Each structure stands twice: as structure tokens, then as C-alpha cells.
Hints:
Elements: H1 2-13, E1 20-22, E2 43-45, E3 66-68, E4 89-91, H2 102-105, H3 109-113, H4 122-134, E5 136-138, E6 141-147, H5 154-163, E7 176-185, E8 188-197, H6 204-207, E9 216-221, H7 228-243, E10 248-252, H8 264-270, E11 274-279, H9 288-301, E12 308-310, H10 311-318, E13 327-329, H11 330-339, H12 345-357, E14 373-375, H13 378-390, E15 398-402, H14 403-409, H15 415-427, E16 432-433, E17 440-447, E18 464-469, H16 477-484, E19 494-495, E20 498-503, E21 506-513, E22 518-524, H17 527-547, E23 554-557, E24 567-568, H18 569-578, E25 582-586, E26 589-593, H19 595-599, E27 615-620, H20 626-641, E28 645-648, H21 659-669, E29 672-677, H22 679-683, H23 685-700, E30 705-710, E31 720-725, E32 730-735, H24 755-779
Parallel strand pairs: 1-2, 2-3, 3-4, 6-8, 6-9, 9-10, 10-11, 27-28, 27-29, 29-30
Antiparallel strand pairs: 5-12, 7-8, 13-14, 15-17, 16-17, 18-22, 18-23, 19-20, 20-21, 21-22, 23-24, 25-26, 31-32
Amino acid sequence: xxxxxxxxxxxxxxxxxxxxxxxxxxxxxxxxxxxxxxxxxxxxxxxxxxxxxxxxxxxxxxxxxxxxxxxxxxxxxxxxxxxxxxxxxxxxxxxxxxxxxxxxxxxxxxxxxxxxxxxxxxxxxxxxxxxxxxxxxxxxxxxxxxxxxxxxxxxxxxxxxxxxxxxxxxxxxxxxxxxxxxxxxxxxxxxxxxxxxxxxxxxxxxxxxxxxxxxxxxxxxxxxxxxxxxxxxxxxxxxxxxxxxxxxxxxxxxxxxxxxxxxxxxxxxxxxxxxxxxxxxxxxxxxxxxxxxxxxxxxxxxxxxxxxxxxxxxxxxxxxxxxxxxxxxxxxxxxxxxxxxxxxxxxxxxxxxxxxxxxxxxxxxxxxxxxxxxxxxxxxxxxxxxxxxxxxxxxxxxxxxxxxxxxxxxxxxxxxxxxxxxxxxxxxxxxxxxxxxxxxxxxxxxxxxxxxxxxxxxxxxxxxxxxxxxxxxxxxxxxxxxxxxxxxxxxxxxxxxxxxxxxxxxxxxxxxxxxxxxxxxxxxxxxxxxxxxxxxxxxxxxxxxxxxxxxxxxxxxxxxxxxxxxxxxxxxxxxxxxxxxxxxxxxxxxxxxxxxxxxxxxxxxxxxxxxxxxxxxxxxxxxxxxxxxxxxxxxxxxxxxxxxxxxxxxxxxxxxxxxxxxxxxxxxxxxxxxxxxxxxxxxxxxxxxxxxxxxxxxxxxxxxxxxxxxxxxxxxxxxxxxxxxxxxxxxxxxxxxxxxxxxxxxxxxxxxxxxxxxxxxxxxxxxxxxxxxxxxxxxx
Length: 780
């Protein structure tokens, strides 16, 4: 029956020009040979079967763009995998015998399918596999992270482990200290990279960027403030969110000074990754020998420590194991690679991505502000960022940071690297520019911790109220929301744990309550404007929550007329799909509510319809207009929230991707290419030769539409222009004004009283264009 079902599905796709074959979950251990006859096959999904080998006829499918092989029993990959040069997606998760680390495999197909992340590059996966088979040796490295609140004794634990020393009254770590500790494990030398994290609250916002999977965590507790139970739950949930199933050792530190106990059985039940609890005291050396023994046994048998690494890559990596300088130009990285026998530039970039994924270096090849440098010592980054975060800490801080202030706080650093650190903070959504030349920045973590006096009216019954509940509310979550929504909070109250947004007359109060691990949203104003604002708020939280899935966010809505009672949005949506009754628990008992009416208060019906067709927007812009893109993103979010369009900008390129390939791929898949035209846009060589050229070619071929948005007055965008096409060696002549701009009469965004009003007009024009594209698609 399984084979018959497979043959039936194969027959169905024979006549389709860009066919997809889905044989997921059929329990196949042999594939039908007729698959090899599907020469035009683009997507082949063979996940969740019983395949031990891959037949040669799959290698004949040279047009494949996606190949799903997760959760099979593969122990080897055939050589023909290298010939599948058109692959954009390759999923090999759940084939442990292949020995490919999760960092190299990247997101699963389920995670990619959630439309919030991008798959790993297939060539990186294939290269890693075959190079480890040609000549490789065990990596024998591991990242060990000491976490816990400030003053718990993490630094003393580090000193005892690495140097067998103890300094009474040792000061708290100001940022992160990284020590390299060689440890003999079962006759092999394992290099332990021991990270000692600062415990102060203000530093927690950046922990999420360094708390990684497949690391060993040592949670250090003490009883000095009698908060050990709460501390344990907070940190264990944080580790579960970012470290997933990484092993955890819990230390009951300063035990001789103040003995204490915690509920070990309950914590172990809630957090299965805990391996042991050890009472320790660095002054008397209590438990330190047991801790070394436990670590040695763990690292001797733990597979991630002993994964194979290609020999040539290992030679290159050794240059950076104990770096003599914190960073180098990426051109210098290329030179080192060439000296180690890695001459191909594409392979050098793959190696940089893999070393980044493994936490050995930091290189953000997708970011034009960061790609020209590689950081060899993460300690330099963390300490630099922590210095900037603490620079203006205090109740009177307005949260602003200038580049000059940052440069003074980092004496001796070149201006380029000071700006690099700020660029890194921007990438991690820790700050945003408040002026056009990007010399002044607002850092939400530097805002006052205290809520300012708010005007009355937020308790009105006319409000739309949402809340997001988390297993643990990280310090930086609301800061990211403030950064992402900053165009909507200009002139409104902002503090570290809250913000007021204003859009089209509607307002929203968004606050974090760390005692309850929740964020609350209250939106007031005209119902139509309020709905648009709520959609924007939800889109931003959907993005943040999807990037931090371990926090286990639960979105809840307060039904109209039932103050204080909340219902899970997912349950309301499920009830609507199934046609079931929705109820809510109140003090007066269980009450029926109109699920569709309630959902329509926060979302568009089309967005909840999985069959609703959407178009793809590609947004081409100059990075000098990044602040205007921040404003336009609100309108792009509204198009997505209404189920009309998914938009793409180069900000969505993941670290694991090659930025030029990603841009070219997204242009090819776009239905509408939006050109944010400015003087800087027209002056950009890359935009002209790649994005604009391909946009024009696809528009002439009637494959995509062009939407021109003029950003500023006096842009010389009319008249004939010439672009040299490197692929053909010919010049391409064109007139941008051959296509009508989205704003009539040559108006630009800056002609409106506010930029947001200008982009609202652009949004209205795009809605008409989207409707036209969808109508043509239906009639085709």
C-alpha cells in the first residue's frame, strides 16, 4: 500500500511544469525508480521514511531546489549530491549517523515553514560532510557557560577550575570573561572555552546572543539574598529557552558560609537537562573535585565535543583559537585561509559561516556594515557592548548615546570598530538611530527603569487588550519591541519596561511585568485606526516570539465587555476553523463569546484563511535611507497582517546565508518589486547592476510588477539611463518613468505632513496593485 501510494503521487506530478513530490511519512525503505524520470521536479520531500541509502537516479534531478530527507536512517551521502547545484533547501535533520552538527544543518523545515527563518545553505552542508570524510579530526572543543545572578561566585568557580586560586571578596565580572581551560578527558585533551557571565540585570539583554545550544551550563546559586529558588527557576528557564537540551550542572555555592537546600527532585522533574546538584565553596574547596570529575566524565562521552572537523579548516581555525588581536579585516581572514590551503573565496566564506555557527569567530557576512570585519575574540564584543550599556545607566538617563560618547568610553579603539559595535547593537535590536547621519542612538536598556506619569484613560472599556505570557520574560524582549516600533513612539513616553505608540490617532500602551512574566497591550482610539495599530503590534510580537521560541509565548485576548478575563488567541482561531463554540470563564460562570467577532478586533479574516493567496514583495532601498524604511515597515506589516503580501528586505538575510545569493533569489521570486528611489538609491552601484537591472528585466518580460516610491524631492529619476549587464556584456537602456510612481503627480514621501502619512498613501497604492496581481493570477 505504501508503494502504491507513492506511485500514485508520482503519476500526479508528471504533467506539472514545476512539480513538487511529497512522499513524507510513507514508511518507504526503497524509492520507486520512476522518480528519476521527473526531470522537471523542483521540490522533493522524502522526510520521515526508512531510507538507509539514496539511489543514483535522484542525482539525475538536476533542477531540484528543495530536498527533504529529515528523519530517515541515512548513514552516508552519495557523491552525486555535489551535482545538485540548484538546491536552495536541504534538510537532513534526524539522520544522526551522518555526523553533521545542528549548527551546520540549520533550521528544520518546520521552522522554515513558519516563515520566520531561512534555511542553511545546502552547499555548506554538503561541503562540510564530504570534507570531514576526506581528512578530518575530532574538534575536541566545548563551550562551558557559568550563569547566575551577580555575586553568586561564578568568577571564583572559574578561578578554582582553571587556576586553582581564590581571591576573597572578588569583584563581580563587569561583562564576560572567557578563559581557555585544557582538560584531560578519557585520554584526549579537550579545550574548554569557559564563559563567565556578568549577573547584573542590565547585562541580561545581551545574554541571549551568547547562550547557545550544545554547550555545557553551570548554574551557580547562593543563599546570600535568600532568592535561590527564584534564581534557579529564572536561569533554568532561560537556559531551556536558548540552550535547548544542553546539560546543566547546578552548584549550591558558598555552602560552608551559608548552607542551604533547594527542591532538587522538583527542579529535575521540570528541567530534565539537569545532570547533578553539587554543594560548593571556593574558599574551602568543597565540591570542586567532584565538579571536575563530573565534567570530565560528561565531556568524555558527550558527542558534540568529539565531532569531526575538516583538516584544512582545522588548520585555519587554529589561527584563532587564542587570538593575539580581537578582530581582523575579513580580507586578512581570506589571506590566512589561503595560507592554509583554502584558496577558493566561496569556500573561505563557507568556513567563516561555519566558524561563526560554532562560536569560534563572529562574522556577519550578510550585513553591509559588519561584513568587512571578523571578530576573533567574542570577549571584545561583549565587554564593549556592556561598557556602552552601562555608560549612562541611572534613573535620570534619557537613553541616548552618541558615537562620540561611545568613542570616549572605548579609548584606543579605531572609530570604525566603535561604529562596528554600535552596528552590532543595531543588528541585535538593542538600539536605533535618532538622526539621519546616525550619530545619535537611543538604547532602550539605558532608559529609566521607572514608569513616567501616564495620562488617564488607559482603563477605558473601549480599549482592545492583549497580553503575552512567557515561561520567562527576558530582560531584552521589550527593548527589542521598542526598537522595532520606534517610529510610532516618537514624542511618546518610553521607559525600559514600557512604551506608548501612536498611529493615525490611535494609541497603545505596551508594558512588561517581570513579576508575572507577561507583556500587556492596551489600545484605544477610533476602532478602525485602533485595529490597524493592534495589527502592527501583533506582527512585531509574532516576529520576536518566533525568534525566541524557547520562551513559549502565549497570546491572549480580553473579550469585549469582560474586563480581566482572557482567552487564548490560538484557541479562538481553532474554534473558528472547526466551527465550535467559544466560551470564557468569568466570575459569573462560563459565558459564550462570538469567536469571529473577537478575532476581527485584532486581525483580518483573510489573514486567518490558509487558502488566502498572497503576493511577494521585494523592497529595494539604499542603506542611507534605512530610517525611512523603518517607517515604511509599519505599512508592510499591515499588508502582511491583512493576508495580502509577504515583504522581504535584506534585513531578513540570516548570518548563515550568502547575502548576494539571497538577494538575487528573492528578486526572482517576487511578484512586486518596490523601488524606494532616492539620490543615494540611484548612486548605488550594486542596486543599479543587480536589483534595478533584474527588476526591469522581469517587468519587461511581464514576470513581475514594479512599484516606484519617490522618497525625497528633486530626485533625478526621469529620462533614459544605461546599465551594463555583466552576464551578457551588453548595455541595457531604460526609463524608470516608463512606469508610474505609486504617488501621483511626482509626489514624494517627504511632501506629506509626516512621513507616515506619505507611506500610508504608498500602502493604499500597493493594495490596488496587489489586487491587480491577484486578479491576473486567478484568470491565468
